[in-house]
Amino acid sequence: MQPGQDGVHVVADDREPADGVVARLRQHPDVTLYSGRLPVGDYLVDDGLLFERKTLPDLVQSIKDGRLFSQALRLAQARQRTALVLEGRGRDLAGSRMRREAIQGALAMLTLELGLPILRSTGAAETADLILVAARQRRAVASGALARKGRRPRGKRQLQAYILQGLPGIGPARAQRLIERFGSVEAVVSASAPELAAIPGIGPDTASVIRWAVEEEPARRYAPAGCGCAASDCASTYAQA
Hints:
The chain is built from ten helices and nine strands. With 241 residues, it is α/β, with parallel strands linked by helices. The radius of gyration is 20 Å and the shape is globular.
């Protein structure tokens, strides 16, 4: 479901427990909750926000067994906007036998190197409320209720550079180089990954992410039962929770 439609549509991975976050979401009158197997993440909201939820003990265990970074990489590569929600209080780490520096190092890697936002909540109820707050903020941005930060530039060239800064990994300097090389926003988004990678400071990784961001999205993998889609358009359907 897309932002702007009535209610918030949430898909909870069917491996998530029925109590806690799921129970809290079910209590909200403006939430339509579905259960389905998500390939990555625990909660998919309006088909545009993806949340991975971990309690603090889960976080420590995933660092120990090496799962954390593989999960984070998959989240970073998802087409939705993603975030990791860390749930719990400091006392939950008592007896974990993991140094604080090791945890901080892991979180620094996720945020600074993978660009994965980390949100904090004290418990399951707050996690559910946080998910809904994020959904409402996303809708506000989509409707134009929240202005983009910074003054709108004057002049076509400045405006083009400003637009390009909305692409992943593109700041003011890189945006200017793209405009100088390709001449227009249209030409930039039509450029191939090798052409983008040839721009100084971009490289193949950023070029691949840009191509992923501007390419047409594939057919939705999930859709609510009774959504009216052709069978070929829906790989599977949800069971409404």
